Amino acid sequence: MTLPIAAQINSVMAALILLTAFGLLIQRRILGLLHIFAWQGFFLCVSTAIVGYVTGVHHLFISSLLTLTFKVILLPYILYTLMRKLEIRREIESLVNIPGTMLIGIALVIFSYHLTSPITQLSTLVTRSTLAVALATVMLGLLMMVTRSHAVTQIIGFLAMENGLFFAATSATYGMPMVVELGVALDLLIAAFIFGIFFFHISTTFDTLDVAQMAKLKEED
Amino acid sequence: MIDFSSFITEVIQLLFLLLAAPAFAGWVKTVKCRMQGRTYAGILQPYRDLAKLFAKEVILAENASWIFRFTPYIVFGVTVLIGGIIPLISIDLPLADTADVIALVMLFAIIRFFTALAGMDIGTAFGGMGSSREMTIASLAEPAMLMAVFTVSLGANSTSLTHVVQVMAHGQFVLRPSLAFALLAFIMVHLTETGRVPVDNPATHLELTMIHEAMILEYSGRHLALIEWAGMMKLFIYSSLGIAIFCPWGIAATDDPAAMLAGGVYLLCKLAVGGVILVLIETGLAKVRLFRLTEYLGGAFLLATLGMLSFFILE
To answer: Is residue A134 domain-resident?
Structure first.
């Protein structure tokens, strides 16, 4: 109740990141997923900038800018271009049992809260309360990779997991060292290109991006 | 001892509810018609409809039992009782202590229970279908509603509505994500419970998609008038409940006439804005398929639960 105003805004951002993580989990349209993913990156960027402003750790501004360029603009743009090339823009994924997935998601949030509460009690950082949200975002990204069968959505789940890790680093230790963050950002960019190449190969081999098709080892008739 | 002046407050609030509810329903209809480029009958049309229905003769089905005749009065009475419990224009209500938020949800459940029974009582296919749909939806909407109000009462440390409103109106301003989640969930449940567009279409009669209308199809005359009036009051009550919980500024804390007048004016202004928002939501969304409703209401439950969790995690 007595949090300073910056920490309150950070809490709101954390709540929005959690909301977008759930949005990713239950969104059917792939284009919608991209939008939600971009928003998640945007909230992450705002949250990082606020933490940087409050704590005076200035390299957080640079990571915030990196987040903005990579996760809000560049990665969604690359994925969008890929989807246009592969002509899967309007594709709608058939999802089974959305309420069930939501309930599992809620259970994961409670689990991460339980897991991080000892750390939260020991920590003295302004951002300690958002650690549970960060862990929950990682778990929800993982859940998304498990429940979805489309290659593009699995990649978005993977990137959402990365968002969660980044957020965890910010809230647990005020961000990783600059070199590590630069490395991760470049890795992500390279990963996006490699995913693109894989998408082309998957879709030319199987005529679909549904990875469930890959379980078939021989052709059926 | 019941304080006489707060008793007067109660009576004034009930009169306000009874008189203003049709006007609010008319306002929503008018704005909706305007938004969709249709001609409109003005915000007084619901009063004319009610007057017409009260003047008409009641036609009962041959096999209607006492439940069918009894239901309109129960529905109307319980709705008025709810109107006496929730703080509309003033916090200082003698009836407010009789029920907290949980009891309030249960009072809404009584209305639903009797409406569903009456729908099945006549034995027509439409009535039974409407009742079964209503109960299905209710079983999903009620947990979400309870979660949303629990989230709010966690912040106020009380399930008493007047206490919650008091804390919200006079506590210090804190940015609270849990409340935003609870508000979203409340709006989704509001649309469900009052039978608005993503769930039920209030403008249709005799279509296979209808839910509320299907249950009350056999009613006529003053029975129908009472149910319609109660429906309008339900819309009014849900809207002003949301306003009282999430945006209570301006509500009267005492039974001072000037404060109450100001509270009433504030409420009417907020309701006017709320009606426009309601219409915007209704115009922007399409009706959800019945089998997709589990996802819609599951989403409401998710939001309310997230609100509760973020209260523990973030605040």
So the answer is: yes
